[in-house]
From TrEMBL:
Keyword vocabulary terms for this entry: Cell membrane, Membrane, Transmembrane, Transmembrane helix, Transport
Name by which UniProt lists this protein: Predicted arabinose efflux permease, MFS family
A single Gene Ontology CC term: plasma membrane
Molecular-function GO terms, alphabetical: transmembrane transporter activity
Pfam families: MFS_1
SUPFAM superfamilies: MFS general substrate transporter
Record-annotated Major facilitator superfamily (MFS) profile domain positions: 1-187, 220-407
Entry's localization field: Cell membrane
Recorded topology in the membrane: Multi-pass membrane protein
Annotated source species: Thermoflexibacter ruber
Membrane-spanning residues: 7-23, 43-62, 74-92, 98-119, 131-155, 161-183, 223-247, 253-274, 286-304, 310-329, 350-368, 374-394
Length: 407
C-alpha cells in the first residue's frame, strides 16, 4: 500500500477523534444529576440533541467545504473547534456549559472524522479504499470504547466532575500536535483523481434544501436513510438512557463503563468485515437482519438484570450496528448516479446523524410517561419494524454488475 506512514498517522488521529467522544459515553447522566441537579429528562438529553444538530449540519456541508479548502486545513479546523470542549467541561458552572461543549464537540467530530477518512481514501488509491475506510472506523470506535471505560474508571476513583475531562484536554493537545506537525497536505493530483466528477458537477455546490428532501423520492435511498436515522436513534438511546437504566439497577461506574464500552468495541471490530461481506452477499440481508438484531437486543435489554446479561447484550447490539453501518453507506453509493454520489452521501449522513436529535427527543418524551424499561422496549419495537420496512421496500440488485441501482 502506498503512503503507509501517513495512513497510519491519520488512523491514529481518528482514534483520538473517537476517544474524545468516548469520554462522555458512560458518565453524563450521573454528572447531570450529581453536579448540576438535573432531573428533567428533556434537559438531561439535550446534550445529545446539541451534539446531533451540530454534527448533522457539518456532515452535510463538510463535503462542499472540502472542495474549496484543503483537507489538512479542515482537519485542523476540526481540532481547533475541539479546543473549547475540555475547558467548558472542566470549568462548567451550569448544564448550559455542557450543552455548549457538545455543540463544539459535534462540529469537531463531523469535520475531523470526515477528513481523516477522506484523506486516507485519497492516499490509499482505488484498490485499498475499502481497507482504509474499515481501519478508520475500527480505530475510531475502538478508541471510543476504551475512552468510555477509562473515563468511568477515573470518575469512580476520583469524582465524576471534573476529573474525567482532563483526559479530553490531553487528547486535544496530542491531536493538534500530530495534525499540525506531521500530517502532510494532500497533493492536488491526489485530490483531483478522487474528486474530478464532483468538480464537474455544478449542482453539487448549488444543492441546498431540495437535495435534503429529494432523496426520499427514491425508494431504495428512502429506505436506507430512514434506517440510518433509526440506527443513530438507537445510539442516542445507548448514550443517554442506558446509563440511567444501569444506575437504577445498582451498577457502579466501572461496571457501567464496561457495558458502555462493549457496544462500540464490537461495533468497531466487526465493521472490518461486514462491508466486505455485503460486497459478496448483497446489501439487503445485512441491513434487514442487522436492524432486526438491534431491535431484539433492545427488547431484551429492557428486562435484563445481571452484569453478564447487560454486557452480552451490549456486545450483540454492537454486532447488529456493525452489520448495517458501513452497508448503508455502500447502498447509498450503489443507488446514486456517479455525479450524485457525494451529494447523496452527504444528505444521507445529514439524516443519519439527525437520529441523535430524534433519539434524544423521543427518549425524553417517552420517559415523561413511561419508565426506562418501557421506553427502551418501544424503541426496540420501532427498530425491529425498520428491518421489516427494509425487507418490503428495498429492491435487491447484483453487486457485481451494479453501476448504480435503480430505485
Amino acid at each position: 500500500m502506498q503512503n503507509k506512514s501517513q495512513i497510519a498517522l491519520l488512523t491514529l488521529i481518528n482514534a483520538l477523534v473517537g476517544s474524545l467522544l468516548g469520554i462522555e459515553r458512560s458518565i453524563m447522566p450521573m454528572l447531570a444529576e450529581q453536579q448540576f441537579g438535573i432531573k428533567n429528562n428533556m434537559l438531561l438529553l439535550a446534550f445529545i440533541m446539541a451534539f446531533g444538530v451540530s454534527k448533522m449540519t457539518v456532515n452535510y456541508w463538510g463535503g462542499k467545504w472540502a472542495m474549496k479548502v484543503s483537507r489538512k486545513k479542515l482537519l485542523l479546523i476540526g481540532w481547533y473547534l475541539a479546543i473549547p470542549v475540555p475547558f467548558l467541561l472542566i470549568f462548567a458552572q451550569s448544564w448550559w456549559w455542557i450543552l455548549l461543549a457538545n455543540v463544539f464537540l459535534g462540529l469537531q467530530q463531523g469535520l475531523a472524522w470526515s477528513m481523516t477518512l477522506l484523506m486516507k481514501i485519497e492516499l490509499a488509491g482505488e484498490k485499498n479504499r475499502g481497507l482504509v475506510a474499515g481501519l478508520n472506523e475500527f480505530a475510531g470506535y475502538t478508541a471510543l470504547a476504551l475512552s468510555a471505560y477509562l473515563s468511568a474508571l477515573i470518575a469512580k476513583e476520583y469524582n465524576v466532575f471534573p476529573y474525567p475531562f482532563f483526559l479530553a484536554g490531553a487528547i486535544v493537545a496530542v491531536a493538534l500536535l500530530l495534525s499540525t506537525l506531521w500530517v502532510k497536505e494532500i497533493s492536488k493530483s491526489q485530490e483531483k483523481s478522487q474528486t474530478i466528477d464532483l468538480q464537474n458537477n455544478k449542482t453539487y455546490f448549488a444543492c441546498s434544501v431540495n437535495c435534503i428532501i429529494e432523496i426520499f423520492q427514491q425508494k431504495n435511498q428512502r429506505a436506507v436513510v430512514i434506517a440510518g436515522l433509526v440506527n443513530n436513534l438507537n445510539d442516542a438511546l445507548a448514550w443517554g438512557v442506558f446509563p440511567v437504566l444501569l444506575i437504577s439497577k445498582g451498577f457502579d461506574l466501572e461496571q457501567i463503563g464496561l457495558i458502555a464500552a462493549v457496544y462500540p468495541l464490537t461495533w468497531g471490530i466487526f465493521q472490518l468485515f461486514t462491508g466486505k461481506w455485503s460486497d459478496s452477499y448483497g446489501r439487503k440481508p445485512l441491513m434487514v437482519w442487522g436492524m432486526a438484531l438491534q431491535g431484539i437486543v433492545l427488547l431484551l435489554f429492557a428486562w435484563a438484570n445481571t452484569f453478564i446479561s447487560f454486557a452480552f447484550l451490549s456486545a450483540v447490539l454492537g454486532l447488529g450496528t456493525a452489520m448495517v453501518y458501513p452497508v448503508f453507506v455502500a447502498a447509498i453509493a450503489d443507488n446514486a448516479l456517479p455525479s450524485q454520489k457525494a451529494i447523496q452521501l452527504g444528505v444521507y449522513r445529514f439524516w443519519r446523524d439527525g437520529g441523535f436529535v430524534v433519539g434524544a427527543l423521543l427518549s425524553a418524551l417517552l420517559l415523561i410517561k413511561f419508565e426506562v424499561g418501557i421506553t427502551i422496549t418501544i424503541i426496540g419495537l420501532l427498530t425491529s419494524l425498520t428491518g421489516v420496512y427494509i425487507q418490503w421496500n428495498f429492491k435487491s440488485y447484483s453487486i457485481k454488475n451494479v453501476k448504480y441501482a435503480t430505485s
